[in-house]
Amino acid sequence: MKAVKYLPTFLFVGFIFTMMVLWLVLPKDSYSPQEKRTLAAFPECNTETLTDGTFQKSLDTWLSDHMPARSFFVGLNADYDLLSGRNGAKGIYLGQDNYLFPKPVQDGETLLKNAGYIQEFADDLDNIPVYMTVVPSSGAVNSDKLPAVHETYRDAEWITAFREKLGKNVRFVDVQQDFAKAAAKRQLYYKTDHHWTSYGAFECYRLLGAAMGYTPLAERDFDKEKVKGFYGTSYAKAALWFLPPDTVELWSNHQQPDDAVTVAIHDGQDNKTGSSYFFREQLKNDDKYPVFLDGNHSLVRITNTAAEGGTLIVIKDSYAHTLVPFLSQHYRNIVMVDLRYYKKEVSALVEQEKADAVLLLYSLDNLAADTNLSYLF
Questions:
Q1: What does each C-alpha distance from 37 to 74, 108, 304 come to in angstroms?
Q2: Under a CB-based contact definition with an 8 Å cutoff, are residues 240 and 82 in contact?
Q3: Closest alpha carbon to 237 in 77, 121, 359, 2
Q4: 8 Å CB contact between 114 and 373
Q5: Alpha-carbon Rg of the chain, whole angstroms?
Q6: Which residues contact 313 (CB under 8 A, 6 or more apart)?
Q7: Structure pTM?
Q8: What φ, ψ does residue 312 adopt, rounded to 5°?
Q9: CB 43 within 8 A of CB 52
Q10: What are phi and psi of 196, to 5 degrees?
């Protein structure tokens, strides 16, 4: 009976001892594929880091990152949060039909500041049309799939306020209502990721056609290659490991010649080229979304010799990576610029490229947080 009395203590001490042994003998990974992040390296130990406290803080992070069975315990904690009524504790809601939704934008200060930058940029361009689209969040478009308790998605309010501040020289294309209708029939956003699907990008491409003056191709003009097993960034943040993966679709115009496309990527002194919109080596990685145009880069130049249009400058976030291959069916040259990495005046680039048009494409979430729009001019 006395042994039973002390059983919880024995179990606890045994657990601590076992974890210590495992921590000592198990190899230390440098990357977590489920969390999609690099794990902490052992901190530098010197007089400075010891006296200012950074060594102790970094050591705690290192110990936490390399705890045995870390993914299991991270997932267990996420499951507990969900079951105890704290859906969204990690900034991601679990909704119906296995949808994961990042929490909504709550502060519009940066958003409206960016509208001012875009207005000034458009006003300074001489007779070059400037188009703008803001991609609404998955939570706003798929509102019927949100959990019962959630923060309010104010996308319509924020996008309206942003649009009103742009001025007359920006031709704004509002996709909100069309997206809401289309989402009732087809999946426009990944369930485990914040990005839109290829079909979501196709819907935007179709809606942009009337404003930008091209006739969109029909869905039947594209072959679709399906790649299973995609877990996105929302999945990594939520840590709800029981959810099923998404499927990535690669849409290819079956009438386009195989040798028509060239993709040139420029990141400072680092350059690479490809002969397809799809960089298939990325499909081997945990994050498969960079299969589209190789992910985020400073400047990407896409040439399609089969297209009849001129030159389009696309100022964007990562949502554009699935849209640009559709736009490339109509523009011979597209120069894609990411202001997070491109730190030169875009107005000078527009002049240098003799651009026929400019498109700004951002998701609402990114536009409300991006502080790089001042590089437009």
A1: 14, 29, 35
A2: yes
A3: 77
A4: yes
A5: 24
A6: 334, 335, 337, 346, 349, 350, 353, 355, 357, 358, 359
A7: 0.88
A8: -120, 130
A9: no
A10: -80, 160
Q: Tell me the HSE value of 32 on the side-chain side, using a 13 A CA sphere.
A: 24
For 116, the token pair is 């001012």
Residue with tokens 């700004």: 360
CA 214 vs CA 122, 208, 209, 329, 371: distances in Å: 21, 8, 5, 10, 32
How is residue 361 annotated by DSSP?
E
| Residue 113 burial (CB count, 10 A) | 15
Query: Helices 320-327 & 198-212, crossing angle to 10 degrees?
Result: 50
**pLDDT tens sequence across 264-322:** 999 877 889 999 999 999 999 888 999 999 999 999 999 999 999 999 999 999 999 99
d(C-alpha 145, C-alpha 122), whole Å = 37
- Is the Cβ–Cβ distance between 131 and 223 less than 8 Å? no
| CA dist., res. 355 & res. 335, Å (int) | 9
Side chain identity at residue 351, one-letter code: E
Extract the tokens encoding 33: 């594929």
Q: CA geometry: angle at 319 spanning 93 and 150, to 5°? A: 15
Would residue 193 be called left, alpha or beta, if left means φ above 0 and alpha means ψ between -120 and 50 degrees?
beta
Closest to 223 in 3D by CA, of 196, 248, 255, 200: 255
